[in-house]
Amino acid sequence: MRMQPNAQFDGQPVPEGATATAIELSEASVTFGRGDRAVPALSKTTLKIADGEFVALVGPSGCGKSTILRLVSGLVQPTSGVVIVGGREVAARAMRVGMAFQNPTMLPWMTIERNIMLPLKIVEPFRSNFRKLRKTEFRDKANALLEQVGLNGFGNRYPWQLSGGMLQRANLCRALIHEPRMLLLDEPFGALDQFTREELWAILQNLWMTHKPTVLLVTHDLREAGFLASRICVMSARPGRILDDSRVGFARPRTVAMTFEPEFVALNQKLRTFIEDARSAAEQEAG
Amino acid sequence: MFGIDVRQKAWSAGLIVLFFVAWELFCLMTGMSDLVLPRPSQVFLTLFQRFPVLWPHIVQTLATTMFGFVLGVALGAIIGVSKTAYDTCYPLLIGFSSIPKVAVVPIFVLWFGSGTVPAVLTALSICFFPIVVNIATGLATTEPELEDVLKALGASKLDILWNVGLPRTMPFFFASLKVAISYAFVGAVLSETVASNRGIGNVMMTASSNFNVPLVFAGLFVLAGLGVALYVVFSLIEGRVTGWATRKNDVIAT
Ligand SMILES: Nc1ncnc2c1ncn2[C@@H]1O[C@H](COP(=O)(O)OP(=O)(O)OP(=O)(O)O)[C@@H](O)[C@H]1O
Ligand SMILES: [Mg+2]
After folding, report:
1. CA atoms within 13 A on the CB side of B119
2. Which CATH superfamily is domain A20-91+181-189+216-287 in?
3. pLDDT category, B23, cuts 50, 70, 90?
């Protein structure tokens, strides 16, 4: 079962190696700490993501999903194995990466607007024009994004003046503003109500369909994974590895109504079974 | 909030007035000789009458202090910002800062002669330690999560220092500046008292050997006034730069 493209939801077979590889983890393990206090977070994970793919990563809490994102973005080095992103070992130097962290860490001394413009200040080609355009074009860009996620007029507030869900939406804006070729999203909609969440799904799907960035989305919401992703990877309990890798072939643009159709429900059911098995296996091991 | 703020300020002002009134009354009632403790009204009068003579000395002290202070801030910032430099210099710094500066002034005088240079050096050497320690602490306690935001974008070390480390350190930095400016005054005046023919420290020294006690006190008042004035200046800048840290709702977004 492992690593096999699942043909059930996808009519045509996936042409292997037809597109360039964006992300490649080969036998990558991560262990935090040393000696007695070592915590294995990820064990020998192999994962290959093609350019322009939308991959969702699901699995029980603490299984190493965030760790995979941190590996890809170069914030963590693999203890063993290799991580290659965009043909190089350091993601951010190889291509423009937009990352939304699980905890929306806004810099507390900057307004939301300036927080969102931060990538433009750092990343080329925006960087060279930052001084010139930050009061005009770039600010408009930030405000357009804020408007899209329903944060109209909150640009000049400070982070502590926003609610958790609002911060999370601002966090998403910051990941998108520099038009990255790769998006790493760590539970970007976790703190939102169902309706806002579904609105943002549509926005993200739209963005992906027009610009085709490579997306790696971590989520606990199986409906979300099914709605957005073209491929879903299920991870085992800690130390994580990938148990199942299935393709999702529903036609795009997908709608919320589709998520209640029998095929979609069957996919959810299947994913649920995997995660349940993974959890009970972990409990047996521990007990 | 507003009402409490105003009331607080009224209490502070009231306390200052009360202090001077009590002092005045105490001197009047005990018939204290102004050779021992002059009345505040005498001190203010002296200050007013002798102001033209005092002015160049005030300028001298202020200039020396600021010069030493600016050098101290620069040196402190350079050492504090670099973790390697800080870790390397730390033991030496502690040793150095434990030496009473009174003991060092004669050495400075021996090297550079009496006058402005030893005063600047004393001010510098006494004020830069709190700055080093505070900048280093601020940088060391910066949340890695904040740095990760920039690291994920491929930012250089300098970018991270400039956009995360330094802004995060500003509250610590200003706290140390307010301490350091008083220290710088102490250092400059100390050195002027021992070895200089200019500056408020020298004025007070001369005045006390002439038993002109009101003038000595006038010098003290000048120093206190300068100290308060500079403290206020830094507080105002601090309010603008680090308003985020105190979560003032009225901070103005620029
Ligand atoms: N900096 C760290 N130091 C030590 N252990 C860590 C560190 N970061 C993560 N871990 C451990 O690694 C494991 C995987 O963490 P990770 O954050 O990747 O989980 P996750 O799958 O994202 O979980 P969740 O769904 O709850 O966010 C956890 O068990 C955690 O205890
Ligand atoms: Mg996580």
Report:
1. 28
2. P-loop containing nucleotide triphosphate hydrolases (3.40.50.300)
3. very high
